[in-house]
Amino acid sequence: MRRLHTHQHLRQHLRHPLAKWTWVACSLVPFVYLCAGVWWDRLGPNPAEALIRASGDWTLRFLCITLLITPLRITTQWPEWLLFRRSLGLLTFFYACLHALCYSLLDMSWEWDEIAKDIVKRPFIAVGLACFVLLMALAATSFNAAVKAMGATRWRQLHRAVYAVAVLGILHFFWMRATKRNFAEVWLYASLLGALLGWRVYHFTKRSLWKVS
Ligand code: HEM
Q1: What distance in Å separates the CA atoms of residue 114 and residue 100, rounded to the nearest whole number?
Q2: What letter would DSSP give residue 80?
Q3: Domain around 73
Q4: Which atom of ligand 1 sits closest to the CA of residue 132?
Q5: Pocket test for ligand 1, best of 64, 95, 173 (most atoms within 8 A of CB)
Q6: Is 80 exceeded by the pLDDT of residue 3?
Q7: Residues 6+ apart with CB under 8 A from 115
Q8: What is the pLDDT of residues 36-68, one digit of tens each?
Q9: Is the model's pTM score more than 0.90?
C-alpha cells in the first residue's frame, strides 16, 4: 500500500509542469560549465580539443538517456516518461550541434574546403557527419505539426533512425580512438547502447510471439 502511494507521488512529480523544465535546466549545466571553462580559461592546454571531446561525450550521454525512456515507460508502465522524450532528443541534438560547431569553428576555422578534405581524409569524420544528418532529420520532425503532416506510421518509421544514430555514433567514437588504441570508454558506451537496443529486440520479439500464439 505504502509502495503504491510512493509510486503515485513520483508519477505526480513527473507530471508536474515544472518537472520537464527543471530537467532541461539541469541538462544545460554541462554547457554552462564548458562556457565557464572558456571564460576563465580552465580547459587545459588545448581548449579546442577539450571542447570538441566534451561536447561529443555529452551527445552520446544524452543519446543513452533518450533511449532509456521507452524501457522505463514499459517496465514501470508509467506513460509520464514520454513527457520527457522529445526534450531529451532535442538536448542530444543541441550537444551534437555544439560538437559540430566547435569542430568547424575551432579546428577548421570555417574553411569549407578544408572540412570537405577532412571528411575524405578521415573516415571517422564522415561517419560523424552521417550521424549528425540523421539527428537533424529527427530533430526537424520532432514537432507535433510534423507528426500530423507525415502521419503516425511514417513518422514512427523515420524515428527508428535513432538506432542508426546509436550505431554510427559508436562507430565514429571507435574509429576516432582506433589510432590511439584507447577503447575503454568506447566499450562502456557500446555496452550501454547495446543493452538499450538489445532490450528492445528482446521485448518486441517476445511481444510479437505472444501475439502470434
Ligand atoms: C558533423 C558531425 C561530426 C563531426 C565533424 C565530428 C567530429 C569529431 C572530432 C573532430 C572529434 C575529436 C577527435 C580528436 O580529438 O582527435 C570527435 C570526437 C567525438 N565525437 Fe564527433 N563529430 C561529429 C558528430 C558526432 C556525433 C553525432 C556524435 C554522437 C552521437 C559524436 C560523438 C563523438 C565522441 C563521443 C567523440 C570522442 C570524445 C572523446 O574522446 O571523449 N560526434 N568528433
Answers
A1: 14
A2: G
A3: 2-212
A4: 27
A5: 173
A6: no
A7: 104, 108
A8: 999 999 999 999 999 999 999 999 999 999 999
A9: yes
